[in-house]
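Lab notebook, bench 4. The sequencing result for the construct came back, and we need a structural model before the next group meeting so we can plan mutations. Quick request posted to the team channel:

Model the 3D structure of this chain.
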Amino acid sequence: MKVRALDLHAQFRDVGRDVRAAIDRVIASQQFILGSEVQSLEQEIAAYSSVAHGIGVSSGTDAILVGLMALGVGHGDEIVTTPYTFIATAACIARLGARAVFVDIDPRTYTLDANSLDAAIGARTRAIVPVHLFGQMADMDQILAVAAARHVPVFEDGAQAIGAHRRGRPMGRGSRGAALSFFPSKNLGCMGDGGMVMSDDADFASRVRLLRNQGQEPKHRSQMVGGNFRLDAMQAAVVRAKLPYLEGWTRARQNHAKAYRAAFDQAKIDPELLSLPYEANGAHHVYHQFVVRTPKRDALRAHLEARGIECAVYYPLPMHLQSCFAAWGYAEGDFPEAERAARESLALPIYPELAPSAREYVVNEVTAFLSRV
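Done. Here's the predicted structure in token form:
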């Protein structure tokens, strides 16, 4: 059996008619940059996410970058964040001449360990950037409490977690804002690159809106140095066509996660050999990825792929060990939980259209391999 890590062909069979109609609508309008499609998407995502403002931008990476720019991050500043994330989080910090001050992760949720946050904040700290990884939010109640006590703004990297919340708190609530990604493989993806900044802070949202369009207001009168971070109308229209399906897709992902848990529990695998995703108290996990941990990760991955099961490693090298950030002065051993997660984590196939038979095949092959080691 062949089991894909993600099957966008299956998704398109469900949404293709709506997507094609949305694309035709943009072609008929001949309005391709920003415009009414982007404005409508901004309103719809803000309403879906229970925040006041949405600002469409050119990618999830640019959502992080423009969010940091709106906070005034620059040379010599320090940004507290996690070393266990996609490179865009740290790269945006570096691009602005700032330095990432890393905090190790909670080994259960893979998100920033809020208990270690306060010690990482110093005189040069300009912002805290928690990452909501694999579809689960970090402990924002504790993070925001520390941030408020130390008078430091928070900007959330929510690229993998649209629709997630924790203890009733959505992304962007209580912080300056949150970044979303509409990369095609995300839970809500476009047909190229796209992203959004969400915020309840009107002043912050206004600043982001200005920065995404070369700082211009009015046209040809730039109030600040911004960038070309505009969202294409075509990508906005595609996301709008898919948005009505998102809640159903999220429930399907959660049901797959529940079925995986039940099947692995029934298999009675030694917990020292396999640990399943942890759902924090009060978390609404949207399962962008279903990440298991095993000290036999590389051998298990090879076994699965030899049997037609696609899986992925997120992430094999933490940010503090990336050569492009060597000037920051970190070394192996500085963040042991992030390093252990990088050695042990493996994402198994999970997407709404995953067939139960395919899911069972994955469980059987994982079980068969780990029963022999």
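The mean pLDDT is 96.
Will bring this to the meeting.
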